[in-house]
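name: query_chain
kind: protein
chains: 1
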Amino acid sequence: MNLECYRWPAEWEAHSRTWVGWPVSEATWPGIFERIPPAYAKFVAAIAKFEPVSVLAGGEGVAESAKPLLDAACEAAGAVFPVELVDIPINDSWARDYGPIFLTGRPGTSASGQAVIVDWNYNAWGGKYPPWDNDALVAERIASRLGISSIKPDLILEGGAIEGNGAGTILTTDNCLLNPNRNAGMTRQKMEDILREYLRCDNVVWVPGHGIIGDDTDGHIDQVARFADTRHVLVAAPWSDDAPEAAELRQNFDAVAAGVNAQGETLLPIPLRMPSPKYQGEHRMPACYCNYYLTNGGVIVPTFGDPADDKAMQLIAQYHPGRKIVGVDAIDLVWGLGAYHCMTQQQPLF
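structure:
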């Protein structure tokens, strides 16, 4: 399939819906799983105040157990958009990583008003968490459900590993995309060629990707750096200047500052301070405000019961003007080692 007439929209562009995966894996939240479905329902309800939500809830009893929690949460939140339960089974809830990447037709071309799905291969972050057989089929099954053509590159890649500005520039990390546990023998040049071909980008800015203690993705970009527009990038900064991760987070900041976008403009990094360390038992969780999710007219921000929550939301509001900022408690959900961006995949309007 020729993709020349397509583009990868930025997350802040209009959505037709959000896709999420209902929590089904107790191993993802060991010891606290009973608290996860209600917390997840509140998160879905927060999105449904801004746009429709499709919840992957296939398998015996999954939709039946999810529906009353979602109905109650949506009523309590005053959600006005529909939440549908979709009979597509999953192994885990991280729809960002295994879900479809939607490209849309460029206006004025033969593809205008159309979309195509990029269906990357998936191996649960380098084979860390089997099984992943259902997750690996999600993009294909959504494409079939929507009647949208799909294309499948011969490459393992998670959606949380790439961040686009909608104008030809992609941020990603060496630590993840060049990791041999995904695609052995991959080089920067070969990876850039693949990203240019399938995501229609003009340039790639590489960030080291280290510094989020507790992260198990090998450095997903959506934990460390997020485009706010075509130039400004919110970059995870240490909760304290003498934090043990401060030097590595500074390397990410400097890499963004050294980058340019496809128009040749220097990127402008903005430090977004993390909360103080959060633990489940002796394990530090990857609590980070960069893992927010943009909806139509809103931003869903993970909060952690920390004094830094308010400052983070104020900064995110400053760089996403005109959107309503909604903080949703993520202290239980982040024990699964991800937050709201990891749990979502947007379907752009086309």
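note: Residues 58 and 88 are 4 Å apart (CA to CA).
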